[in-house]
Amino acid sequence: MRIKHLDKKNALSIISASKKQMIYTLKLISTDESAFNIIRNIYECFRMLGDALLVSEGKLLEDHIEQIKTLEKLGIQTTRPIKIVDSLRKMRHNINYYGYTPSKLEADDAISFAKECYNIVFEKVKEIIDSQSEKRFI
Fold it and tell me: DSSP code of 74?
């Protein structure tokens, strides 16, 4: 992990991009052919929220696991466990590196999870970033 200065502006930019991408992704029609992109995009949108929190704290990580753990530590009450994001991470890894082909059913589950939990996580992350001071660390 590298420590930089707190970067609230960049963090807000990341969560804005995440929100736009989630809105787009949830408009896609779920099929066996689109499952690949839907699952990867939904995972990426959640990962970006974790990344934004770390960036806002001045931490730069390239490890997706730490970005997901950051979301899990928020202690948010959702209808489904946030740990599902880590399952999406593992599936995305298998898609990208082992040629795994997800099904429409898996995409539908990811969509359901995103619809139930994304906005709750997004709002909490935005609230945290908005409340942070503009201290600078090197």
Answer: T
Distances 8 to 18, 32, 115 between C-alpha atoms, Å: 15, 39, 26
- Render 23-40 in DSSP notation, one character per residue: HHHTTSPP-TTTHHHHHH
pTM greater than 0.70 (yes/no): yes
Burial class (CB in 10 A: 0-12, 13-18, 19+), 70: buried
Q: Would you tell me how many other CB atoms lie within 10 Å of the CB of residue 9?
A: 12
Per-residue pLDDT of the chain (138 residues; tens, 9 = 90+): 445 567 889 999 999 999 999 999 999 999 999 999 999 999 999 999 999 999 998 887 777 899 999 999 999 999 999 999 999 999 999 999 999 999 999 999 999 999 999 999 999 999 999 998 544 443
User: CA-CA distances (angstroms) from residue 31 to 3, 22, 34, 97, 112?
Assistant: 42, 17, 5, 21, 14
Could you identify the residue written with the tokens 């795994």?
100
Query: From 3.30.70, 1.25.40, 2.60.120, 1.20.120, which CATH number describes the 2-130 domain?
Result: 1.20.120
Domain boundaries, the chain: 2-130
